[in-house]
Each structure stands twice: as structure tokens, then as C-alpha cells.
Amino acid sequence: MIFDMDGVLVDSNPAHREAWVRFNRRYGIETTTAMLERMYGKRNDDIVRDYFGDSLTEEELHRRGAEKEELYREMIGERIEQLLVRGLRQFLQKHRGTPMALASNAEPQNVDFLLDRAGLRSFFRVVLDGSQVSRPKPDPEIYLTAADLLHVRPADCIVFEDSYSGVEAALAAGMEVIGIRTTHGNLPGAGICVNNFESEDLESWLATRVNAG
Questions:
Q1: N or C, where is the chain less crowded by C-beta within 10 Å?
Q2: The one catalytic residue among 6, 11, 46, 162
């Protein structure tokens, strides 16, 4: 099993939206709904380029992205447990014997922050963030890398995703997808979509895949 982070492990997108609104105002930019819709599933450098244009130096690009993420972490620091997607901890515990990886476009500081603050790191044999691949989602690189590091075939992997670009990446990697409805009501291409990890349909759907294998 391979998990995205934002919108899958933690329902963080509302906080990310608010952080971008606050951060962009520092530069006189009012963030529109359309701008926020474009951020889902993207790596930070792509979002900064989208919002501020292509004229930024690489140093400035990364500095602004880091500042926004620092603001985001300040906003959620005391609310991590409440923001975890419902049923996540129990689901991970139940399936602890299954090889699991985290594969996210997120910044490494955000990945470390969540895994360590929430005490989730021990569940994942492999942890990949956006800095560890050359091509972010929707490219399948991060999911193919995760499968390789887990020593499993891509066709034997199930990905948990909440974004269109993430689903696209997983399907391009030849993997099945479980959609988590934190960000979108429907995720075309997903084998099943559920509201959270307590969904009764989730375990029965997984059981059919295990039996088929």
C-alpha cells in the first residue's frame, strides 16, 4: 500500500488554502478560488511559479515556498491529531504487516513534521517526498520508486490518493487506486472512493484484491 500525505493521511488542504491566502497577501496578491484549485496534488515549486510567475530565481522560488510551509506548520502544530483522516491510525495498525510506503509531493520538512508529530513513521517502510524525485506527480516516478524500494511489482500496489494528479500518477505507474474524498467528491480512475478509513466498503474492496492475488 502506498499513501499520499496531504488529503490522505491528514485533512490538511483547508489549512494549506488558508496558509496560501495569508502568505500571498504579504506580496499583495489576493488568492482566488481558481488559484487554490490549481494547487491540489502539485509540488511546491510548481505552485510558487503559478502564483508568482517565472521571473523568480531558484533561490527566491525555494525561499518563498519554505516560508509558506513554515506558516502552514505553525497553523496546524497543535491540531495534528484532530486533522488526521478519520480511522487512519486504526487502519495502519490493522495492516501493519503489509509493506507500506508514503509517497508525497510535499516538502520534506512537512513530511517529517507530520510523521514525527503524529507518531506515524514506524508504519512506513519507505518514505518519499517531493525533493527525492526529478518529476513530481502527475508523473509516475515517485510511485514507481516507492514500489522499487518496497521490492514489489507496481501491479501489486494499491495507492491511496485524494487529487486528480495523484490518481493520474498512480494509474500511469500501473497501480490500482483508492480515492479519499477529502478534496474531491469523485476521482475518475479510482477503483473505489471512500470518505475515510472507517468506510465499510474499504475493507471489503481490499479483501477482493487480496483474494484475487
A1: C
A2: 6
Nearest-5° angle of CA 159, CA 205, CA 168? 30
For the chain, how many structural domains are there in total? 2
* Distance in angstroms (rounded) separating the CA atoms of residues 169 and 191: 14
Note whether 16 and 36 are within 8 A (CB). no
Tell me, yes or no, if 139 is annotated catalytic: no
The pLDDT tens digits for 47-71 are 999 999 999 999 999 999 999 999 9
Q: What pLDDT digit, counting tens, does each position of 138-165 carry?
A: 999 999 999 999 999 999 999 999 999 9
Q: 125: which DSSP letter?
A: S
User: 4, 11, 45, 129: which is the annotated catalytic residue?
Assistant: 4
Extract the C-alpha cell encoding 116. 514525527
Do 6 and 28 share a structural domain? Answer: no
Same domain (yes/no): 62, 139 = no
Same domain? For 68 and 87 the reply is no
Residue-number span of the structural domain to which 141 is assigned: 2-11+83-212
Q: Which residues contact 145 (CB under 8 A, 6 or more apart)?
A: 103, 128, 132, 133
Catalytic residue status for 6: yes
